[in-house]
Amino acid sequence: MSTSFLFQDEEFLGWWPFLREFILALGSEIMEEIHCVEQFFIKIKSLYAFVSQVCFFVLVDLLLEENENFDNEKGDKSVVMALTSVLFYSVFGYFVSRIKDVFHRQRFQLFRSFLTIEHLVTWIFKVILEWVKAIVIVLCLREQGLNYQPSLLYSILTFLYYLCSEKIFVETLPDLFEMLSIEKFENLEHLYVPMAMNFFTVLAGTVVSTYFLLVQYSNFVLLSVYFLVYIRLKDIYYNYWKLLIVEREIFRSFRIATKEEIDSWNDICAVCLTAMSRARITPCNHLFHSHCLKRCLKSSLLCPLCKTHFLDGNSEIKL
């Protein structure tokens, strides 16, 4: 009998390395598929933002009402409150998107084209219509005994979260910072600003969900942690942080000029023809704005001034 068991054990040990490799490979494939699904979900910006907003709004409402039970009538009212809040805020988001569209297409030149006036009137009526729809929904909810009366703190917290998570604001705010021409950003506002906004949403989601994890475990809290923290951290890492590292890698061979070097240069940037308070130095000792240098590197590895090839004697530049 002992010999039989020994044979079985030896046979199992012989198959174990192959079985282990199969399990690891299968697990890796499953995780890769899950990662692809999560990235696809993140790319659907509107749905991604909506799910996280509803989760956060519900938790905030329950937190402010000091009600940790997700299975009672209050939980249902919190969901209704969250959906109604998203509806009202989306009207503001729609208004901002139309304003952005007007300036982007230069529709502010109203007196030059009748078509632009027609477009302007159209989107104004659309904004009014969206507000009317939101008000009608609130009135219908009141008929059902569900009054939409958010507190001031609830409105502030949820609106800030909405601003930092909604697609239109994540896309618009970097443009506003870019208009300020803050040289310290080195023309990377499209990465720094959304990443900071996402960090705020992660921090807010972590604080609220941690409170409920400590007070009462529930499936909804775990789901909220997944969307408010885990998915958003993946969004930050894969869609902003890694790209930021690549962008910074481009400038690794071009150190930042000191104030004394900029003063001794005593000249404008040869690319944009404006003065420099912050600049990068090329291997051939020429100074340029970081964003100007990056724009030049995308088209050529030659110095814009002396046409020296940047890879000569330096093979570490990666585009």
TrEMBL record:
GO cellular component, one term: endomembrane system
Superkingdom of this protein's organism: Eukaryota
InterPro entries for the chain: HRD1_E3_ubiq-ligases, Znf_RING, Znf_RING/FYVE/PHD
Keyword line: Membrane, Metal-binding, Transmembrane, Transmembrane helix, Zinc, Zinc-finger
Domain annotation RING-type: ranges: 269-307
SMART domains documented for this protein: RING
Transmembrane regions: 47-64, 79-99, 120-139, 214-233
A Pfam short name: zf-RING_2
GO BP of this protein: proteasome-mediated ubiquitin-dependent protein catabolic process
Key word Zinc-finger present: yes
Gene3D superfamilies named in the record: Zinc/RING finger domain, C3HC4 (zinc finger) (3.30.40.10)
Coiled coil location: none
Gene Ontology molecular function, alphabetical: ubiquitin protein ligase activity; zinc ion binding
PANTHER family: RING FINGER PROTEIN 24 (PTHR22763:SF190), RING ZINC FINGER PROTEIN (PTHR22763)
Name used for this protein in its record: RING-type domain-containing protein
Taxonomic source organism: Phyllotreta striolata (Striped flea beetle)
